[in-house]
Amino acid sequence: MELIKVKNVKTDFGDKVVHDGLNLHVNEGEIYGLLGPSGCGKTTLLREMVLLQEFNAGSIEILGQKIENISEEQAQQLRRKWGVLFQFGALFSSLTLAENIALALREYSTLSDAMIQEIVAFKLDLVGLKPSDAFLYPSEISGGMRKKAGIARALAMDPKLLFLDEPTSGLDPISAREFDELILQLRTMLGLTMVIVTHDLHSIYNTLDRMAIIDNKKIAYEGSLEEVTSVKNDFIQTFFGGHTK
Ligand SMILES: Nc1ncnc2c1ncn2[C@@H]1O[C@H](COP(=O)(O)OP(=O)(O)OP(=O)(O)O)[C@@H](O)[C@H]1O
């Protein structure tokens, strides 16, 4: 089942055309990568998918709902069905990790305090953080732990879909690989579908089921790693740093 359908999406910022007819789909349960050279419009597409950015033409359907011309009420309902972790999507520095994770639950649910604490503890455990980490502030933890806490916050409302923008950027290699493992575990445990913008070749190899490479305003290549890297041309060779078959 296709959870995301992008059809002929066009985006410009004034004179600058960023997307000129993008087409892709993401299947349920898939870890799908948005790749491409710097500035090709990956983050813009991700922002369009999560209703933070308008596009000029075409159509995007998420979880069966077309998002162009969506009403505010429908948009609010849809936003609760996905979690997002942006590259600089910092946690609120004045709140503990537990308070950060609980934020959406307090805003969108009528659950009791005790129930919210239980859910927070469960989410912390899910991402590999300790119960005692709940009381720490973002400034007191490492970058890797912050990313994990960001994922725990994104998972607070039990989303079906997770959108991640450059999740391993800024992490040391060990934390980055730990993060890849976490992504794979979460998919297995929760059956999540994920869309990940990434430049990280290790993450691309370790985690992605399929990917789209945006170049020159279009989806230049789409498919599994095997399919994409079997293309014999200079662009693909350079993009994958010569690590193709
Ligand atoms: N709000 C905006 N106003 C004007 N131009 C924008 C805006 N947002 C993005 N752009 C431009 O659109 C292009 C695509 O940006 P985007 O951030 O989507 O690229 P990207 O592929 O994610 O890049 P990177 O890999 O460097 O993060 C860039 O040229 C950028 O400068």
From TrEMBL:
Residues 4-241 form the ABC transporter domain. Pfam families: ABC_tran. This is ABC transporter related protein. InterPro entries: AAA+_ATPase (IPR003593), ABC_transporter-like_ATP-bd (IPR003439), ABC_transporter-like_CS (IPR017871), P-loop_NTPase (IPR027417). Gene3D superfamilies: P-loop containing nucleotide triphosphate hydrolases. PROSITE patterns: ABC_TRANSPORTER_1, ABC_TRANSPORTER_2. One of its GO terms (molecular function) is ATP binding.
